[in-house]
């Protein structure tokens, strides 16, 4: 018998991230985790969490992409974590696993997958804004044009959870 592929989430449910199902989607669990997960492998001058990134991205994208903006990293809240892109690319199957999980998450709320693809340029560009602010010395990501107007505030975990929850409620993805 092989190892159990399931992981325990904060709602005390075991889920298999290798075979993620619509019934596994619990946004309260993901929001809590995203409010605690650091961006940039924690190499920032202060803690900068995935949840703040999602909120800031939401505020920068066209209206039709807002739901996708707060969903785009949700797989990280279900156990996949915020791995740097070079590591994601180096681990065989990781990107496919992440994409499969995100497709299930998008499907669970009838969000068109095309929005995820359209969002990618905004996600890359906001990284350029973030990299100018989150490190001890500003890093100019010359390969991406910043969105501009993005201010990183280094919210604490509680504020991250509160702000991201508000957006999930506003978009009809969560009822509290």
How does the SSE layout of this entry go?
Blueprint: E1 7-8, E2 14-15, H1 27-34, H2 50-60, H3 66-71, H4 85-90, H5 94-108, H6 113-131, H7 157-170
Antiparallel strand pairs: 1-2
Helix pairs in contact: 1-7, 2-7
Can you put this structure into words, describing what you see?
This protein is globular. The longest helix is centred in the last third of the chain and has 19 residues, at 113-131. It has one domain (15-170): Hypothetical protein af1432, CATH 1.10.3210. The mean pLDDT is 95. It is built from seven helices and two strands; from the N terminus they run ββααααααα. A hairpin with a 5-residue loop joins β1 and β2 (14-15). The protein has a two-stranded antiparallel sheet with strand order 1-2. The chain is mainly α. It has helices at 27-34, 50-60, 66-71, 85-90, 94-108, 113-131, 157-170; strands at residues 7-8, 14-15.
């Amino acid at each position: 018998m092989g190892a159990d592929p399931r992981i325990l989430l904060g709602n005390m449910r075991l889920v298999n991230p290798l075979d993620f199902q619509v019934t596994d989607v619990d946004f309260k669990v993901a929001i809590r985790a995203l409010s605690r997960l650091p961006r940039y492998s924690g190499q920032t001058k202060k803690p900068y969490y995935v949840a703040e990134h999602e909120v800031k991205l939401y505020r920068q994208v066209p209206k039709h992409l807002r739901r996708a903006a707060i969903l785009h990293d949700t797989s990280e809240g279900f156990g996949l974590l915020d791995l740097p892109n070079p590591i994601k690319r180096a681990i065989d199957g990781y990107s496919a696993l992440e994409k499969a999980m995100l497709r299930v998450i998008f499907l669970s709320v009838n969000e068109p997958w095309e929005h995820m693809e359209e969002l990618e340029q905004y996600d890359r560009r906001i990284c350029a804004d973030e990299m100018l602010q989150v490190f001890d010395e500003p890093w100019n990501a010359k390969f991406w044009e910043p969105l501009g107007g993005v201010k990183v505030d280094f919210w604490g975990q509680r504020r991250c959870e509160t702000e991201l929850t508000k957006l999930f409620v506003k978009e009809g993805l969560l009822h509290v």
